[in-house]
Specification:
Layout (H helix, E strand, L loop, with lengths): L16 H65 L9 H9 L1
Length: about 100
Amino acid sequence: MSLARPSGVQELPAASVFERERARLIEEISANFEDLMTHTNVLNRKLEEIHGVGKDFTTVAQLWGRFSALIREQQGELAAAAEVGVPGTGGANFGASVAR
């Protein structure tokens, strides 16, 4: 019994170590790029959410800014119209009593 192969069947050359390693690395790089794309998309969605929340706070900040400006304006008007002295200490009446 002969172990030789029939002459009609040609044996394909086995892939060299280099070719096998190259194919493995290409597969690994491809899988890593897919992971990178997935993580980049998740990051992009999160940044869009953060930007949307920031836009929501812009209108609230503007409203509070207007409110604060109005309060400062009213406090300035009240301070200008108030008599000299500290309320509750008699200082407001002191100036009137000295002028008499």
